[in-house]
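DUF1152 domain-containing protein, Deinococcus seoulensis. Tokens?
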Amino acid sequence: MYSLQPPFFQEVQDSRRILIAGMGGGFDVFCGLPLYFALKADGKEVFLANYSFTSMDLGPNGPLPHAVVPVTPDLSAQPGEYFPEYWLSRWLVTQGEPGTVYAFRKVGVQPLKAAYEALITHLKIDTVILVDGGTDSLMRGDEVDLGTPHEDATSLVAVNELRGPKTLLACLGFGIDRFHGVCHANYLEATAELTRSGAYLGAFSLTPDMPPVQKYKEACEAVFQMMPRYTSIVNSSIIGAIDGHYGDHHATSRTHGSELWINPLMGLYWTYHLPAVASRLQYYQPMLDTVTLSDVGLVIERHRDSVPIQPRVNIPV
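Tokens:
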């Protein structure tokens, strides 16, 4: 039987217990919500995690190491206003969903890998899907600009070092990273390279009529109200694109004064075999010894000083 379904869905067809993890901090976990609701509707057990930007002064984590914190609506510590994982957990319970979002602390590869290993054992995970809000996770290290690579690279290397679960990567928000200097010709070239190696699992659009997309929008809008000073530029841009806005459309005052290019490509998931993406990372080996995010910064800085940087290329369309 012929099918035009992207290979990504064949990859997760036999998965039973899936961890969807935001890889770049902030609101990246929200970019995984359409997948969360779609895969749950398909009968799978799905859990949420996020590399967190929040400094969490919380107590013991039970069987889990210090670097991962189960965030629930009944946290004993008073959360600050900027705590996307907490406000998402509060919204989830209003929808009848489990209210735990696992937050990884701001650490380097060694403790993050240990945290993932413990969480995977604790939840009996068979598949990990890292989600990037944007597309800079495919930058290998010698591009004209890497965007915000520290958290993405740490998550990518830590998860690639896991033994056992299937590992996949999904990017949502093509074009958003131009404000961090990313050249999207580099992203398209990387995807072409991954296609040749058989690691590209296809792209597919999110449209307003899809129930998982509607839940994603509801979650974002609810949490934006709970964190009014920290509305996610990435997710508000993606939602604007999904709703059919185009060009210099501003959904939040945080972007006023800049020129946006909201466009339909922002509403596409681009999906990959994670190990092939990780194998392109030019500074992979020194990342393995990092313990802190400062260590990660030094690795990236040293690598950038040691390689010729590609010139910027305009997409000829």
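The beta strands are 17-22, 45-51, 68-71, 101-104, 127-133, 166-172, 200-205, 268-273.
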